[in-house]
Design brief:
Elements (H helix, E strand, L loop, with lengths): L3 E2 L4 E2 L1 E2 L8 E2 L4 H39 L18 H4 L7 H21 L4 H19 L9 H18 L2 H14 L15 H18 L12 H11 L1 H18 L8
Antiparallel strand pairs: 1-2, 3-4
Helix pairs in contact: 1-3, 3-5, 3-6, 4-5, 4-7, 5-6, 5-7
């Protein structure tokens, strides 16, 4: 019985023509299993963090509605010192269940994509978007209470989309296309629309997301690109061109000599 050992997993693979008690090893299957396991775990971990945060938002809204606390007063109020508290609390508050539901779906998808695709950059990106969008609203927005997680969702969408353009690797491009296909309409929501919608939160969320893309796009290493066996053969040929030319000349001379008869040499 033989086993295949790897740094992250250990498997045994049975040969179909042999009895079950005998095994052969392989150098491909363990690596694939390990990569798939790491990807699945990272995706589950990212989704769990986002689900926990969304559950917290629903708990806050439930308590606010049940007790009549009117927590909207903890939102950002531009130009007033007491309104600065909203920089911390505004993304946790919502004006209605529909408002919370629409932001929840966006948070689940965009948050998971951010944490999965950019695990190292996610923390500084979220801090910049969270705080930066709130400060921008406090400095420049209309005099009213501004609250909701829309600034976060816009920041994450614009970060993921812009980073995909700047990095150009397969994972970044794939995430960029997915989020833009689903939430590309956010581009229009940064402009004034209905009076009750804080387009300022959308605008400064998007602005800080783009800024974060330029600042933190290289925090995560480029994913390893898959290389095929025929590419290795081409690399070997390129690495030693003199040897290739010499062997080609010898082959041609050899074929020329073997192709002649004795009379050709007399």
């Amino acid at each position: 019985m033989r086993t295949v050992n790897n740094h992250c997993c250990r498997v045994r693979i049975a040969h179909p023509a042999w009895p079950d008690s005998r095994y052969i090893d392989t150098a491909i299957a363990p690596r694939q299993l390990c990569n798939n396991t790491r990807v699945d775990n990272r995706l589950k971990h990212s989704a769990l963090i986002v689900v926990t945060f969304v559950a917290l938002l629903w708990a806050i809204e439930f308590i606010d509605r049940s007790l009549g606390l009117n927590l909207y007063r903890l939102g950002v109020y531009p130009g007033e010192l007491h309104g600065l508290w909203g920089v911390l609390f505004a993304p946790l508050l919502h004006g209605s269940w529909n408002h919370l539901a629409s932001n929840s779906f966006a948070l689940l998808l965009l948050g998971t994509a951010l944490l999965y695709g950019y695990p190292r950059a996610a923390r500084p990106v979220l801090i910049l978007v969270y705080v930066g969008s709130g400060i921008g609203v406090w400095l420049f927005a209309r005099h009213s209470f501004h609250f909701g997680a829309s600034g976060l969702t816009h920041g994450m969408m614009f970060f993921i989309f812009t980073t995909g353009i700047l990095r150009g690797d397969r994972l970044s491009i794939a995430l960029s296309l997915i989020v833009f296909f689903l939430y590309g309409g956010m581009v229009w929501s940064i402009f004034p629309q209905e009076p009750g919608i804080s387009y300022e939160s959308h605008f400064f969320g998007a602005a800080t997301g783009i800024l974060a893309a330029f600042l933190f796009r290289d925090h995560d290493p480029q994913p390893a690109e898959k290389k095929y066996s025929w590419e290795d053969e081409d690399d070997e040929a390129v690495d030693d061109p003199d040897e290739t030319i010499e062997s080609s000349i010898k082959n041609r001379i050899g074929h020329g000599i073997h192709g002649r008869t004795r009379k050709d040499f007399l």
